[in-house]
Amino acid sequence: MSKVMIKDLGSFMEKKVKVSGWLYNRTSKGKLIFLLIRDGSALVQAIVSRQTLSEEQFNLADKLTQESSLEIMGVVREDNRAVGGYEIEVESLKVFQICDSYPISPKEHGVEFLTFHQHLWIRSQHISSILKIRAEIISAARNFLNSQGFYQVDTPILTPSACEGTSTLFKIDYFGEPAYLAQSGQLYNEANCMALGKVYTFGPTFRAEKSRTKRHLMEFWMLEPEMAFVEQEENMSIQEELICFIVSSVLKKCSNELTTLKRDVSFLKKVQPPFPRLTYSRAVELLREKGFDIKWGDDFGAPQETAISSLHEKPVFITHYPATIKAFYMQPDIDNPELVLCADLIASEGYGEIIGGSQRIHDYNLLKKKINEHNLPEEAYQWYLDLRKYGSVPHSGFGLGLERTVSWICGLSHIRETIAFPRMLDKIYP
Ligand code: 4AD
Ligand code: MG
């Protein structure tokens, strides 16, 4: 007899199978008990009958509480009325544990309560569906990059210097020396792409963001491709292709999860190249027309990004930001050195920035000047400057924020639902 995952039951019609899982719901109707079981892959209804089971086993089934852990053996039957289209006629039952009174019942709970019970809330259909879509996004992104000749190279988490400004660094004590949790793997990836051509890193990144928003986590995962001999135009085309590939993979493989989340996928279906592009300066004009009190040189926050995204049905690139509001390593625009060759990709439906990317400075003297202008300690960046001495080439890359992307694709109202154990401002339990 086969040990089967519920999602695969369709291949075992009229066969005897073993399924292990947890009780999602129980309905007792005299001689019959309906057990709705989840195993992480899907839900299935199992029917326990007094006729098939011993008195003892039947009574045991009748005592099962929500989230009790169990294993059933039985025959798979087709039933169009049942969840998933199948049911199992139980022939024997093994109970691992009868669950204590489970804190999360099907009734509505407040966010405080649910996040305090995060370790249990992840079992809900809602969070499980999001986590499965997250897994598909990661898998699709890797498949895409691997197929395009990228090598995954892992970059360090413990670092001696900042990548994205010094205001959001998590400082730690490294045997008496100050060190920081990585804000981005980019600087190391610039070295890696000079070794391997096209690389990406995918790992956790850390920002001590002191604002409480629906878009910021203190610990989030970033996918960071970096490419030698690639300039900003090509960099954006790769981002476009990557996003389209990810969205189409999720639409293809996660339709059940999107349905569980009640996601309206009409906007996702429109995610096809090319994405609209507008310059920062044009964006400022448009925002002013919409009544925003903003001047050239101000950075955009969530309300501005949402307003820009509402002008388009697809994700939109905002390009050519002023150098003053961007990181030190971005390549100035040759036609106007006040601007840098960068783009933020703003998701559709008001989800804000999902990608930040740019062409990097490849000239030694210019980079050294920028490091000094940004008051960064030059010694700490010596190795980074070296890259501009030994076979320097134009190169570009970007960082895709995984949780922002999950939030957008799943249509969520808060980023805390996009990762199993979110790290929020003043919240680190559980
Ligand atoms: O725009 P950012 O700061 O870019 C970088 O870190 C570059 N070094 C990446 C690169 O070029 N290799 O961050 C990239 C993305 C943002 O677009 C956003 O999606 C996400 O990371 N992000 C966050 N997501 C959740 N919580 C936060 N606090 C985030 N900060 C950035
Ligand atoms: Mg950014």
From TrEMBL:
Keywords: Aminoacyl-tRNA synthetase, ATP-binding, Cytoplasm, Ligase, Nucleotide-binding, Protein biosynthesis. It comes from the Bacteria. GO terms for biological process: asparaginyl-tRNA aminoacylation. Its main location: cytoplasm. Residues 131-430 form the Aminoacyl-transfer RNA synthetases class-II family profile domain. The keyword Protein biosynthesis applies. It catalyses: tRNA(Asn) + L-asparagine + ATP = L-asparaginyl-tRNA(Asn) + AMP + diphosphate + H(+). One of its GO terms (molecular function) is ATP binding. SUPFAM superfamilies: Class II aaRS and biotin synthetases, Nucleic acid-binding proteins. PROSITE patterns: AA_TRNA_LIGASE_II. It is an enzyme of class 6 (ligase). Its EC number is 6.1.1.22. It is found in: Cytoplasm. One of its GO terms (cellular component) is cytoplasm. HAMAP family: Asn_tRNA_synth (MF_00534). Homodimer. Belongs to the class-II aminoacyl-tRNA synthetase family. This is Asparagine--tRNA ligase. It comes from Psychracetigena formicireducens.
